């Protein structure tokens, strides 16, 4: 019985040590490729918009703040529109996960779990599934030419993996 207790205690200590090791690996540094001011690039059409966004460390590097604006020219069925949003990205020490809270000028609020790719060249922001609310997925990928690809997708309520692309863009550092 004493041997069994010792084995259980050893396994608990090993599990605790591995948990501490993994917590040391989770860091906002995994998102370093996003830092900077970015502007949309590419051919625009009459219904296309233009925009600028930035990712900046804040609060002594405890958070990353993303600010964004996009302007869309008037079209036959609507007036010109400006969209502004703000996102705060942070490391939640209790869960050892990178999380983000998003707010925009249209009154939306989205909470995301953030998953950087192993090579730190891409990141996915994913909201929780809900039977009554859409699910959102925002992703950024660094491209070899120094640009950044972005994609925003929405899944309907009750269909958490049925994402459809809402908007895609490419940006370059200013």
Set out the fold topology.
Elements: H1 2-25, E1 36-40, E2 50-58, E3 63-72, E4 81-92, E5 97-104, E6 109-116, E7 122-127, E8 135-142, E9 148-155, E10 164-173
Antiparallel strand pairs: 1-2, 1-10, 2-3, 3-4, 4-5, 5-6, 6-7, 7-8, 8-9, 9-10
Q: What does the model show?
A:
With 174 residues, the chain is mostly beta strands. The chain has 1 helix and 10 strands. The protein has one helix at 2-25, and strands spanning 36-40, 50-58, 63-72, 81-92, 97-104, 109-116, 122-127, 135-142, 148-155, 164-173. The chain has a 10-stranded antiparallel barrel. A hairpin with a 5-residue loop joins strand 6 (109-116) and strand 7 (122-127). The longest helix has 24 residues, at 2-25. The protein is globular. The model is unreliable at 3-24 (pLDDT under 50).
Query: In this structure, how is the largest beta sheet organized?
Result: 10 strands, antiparallel, barrel
Q: Please list the strands of the largest sheet in the order they lie side by side.
A: 1-2-3-4-5-6-7-8-9-10
Shape field = globular
Structural class comes to mainly beta
- H/E element string? HEEEEEEEEEE
Number of strands: 10
**Number of helix segments?**
1
Averaged pLDDT: 86
Give a short synopsis of this structure.
The protein is mainly beta and 174 residues long.
Keywords:
174 residues; mainly beta; ten-stranded antiparallel β-barrel; 10 strands; 14% helix; disordered N terminus
């Amino acid at each position: 019985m004493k041997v069994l207790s010792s084995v259980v205690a050893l396994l608990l200590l090993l599990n605790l040590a591995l948990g501490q090791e993994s917590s040391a690996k989770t860091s906002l540094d995994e998102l370093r490729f996003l830092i900077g001011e970015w502007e949309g690039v590419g051919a625009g059409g009459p219904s296309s918009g233009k925009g600028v966004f930035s990712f900046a460390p804040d609060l002594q590097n405890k958070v990353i703040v993303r600010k964004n604006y996009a302007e869309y020219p008037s079209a036959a069925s609507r007036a010109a529109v400006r969209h502004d949003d703000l996102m705060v990205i942070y490391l939640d020490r209790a869960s050892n996960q990178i999380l983000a809270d998003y707010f925009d000028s249209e009154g939306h609020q989205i909470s995301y779990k953030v998953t950087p790719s192993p090579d730190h060249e891409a990141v996915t922001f994913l909201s929780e599934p809900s039977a009554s609310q859409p699910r959102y997925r925002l992703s950024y990928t660094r491209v070899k030419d120094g640009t950044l690809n972005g994609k925003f997708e929405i899944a309907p309520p009750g269909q958490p993996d049925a994402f459809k692309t809402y908007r895609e863009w490419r940006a370059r550092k200013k």
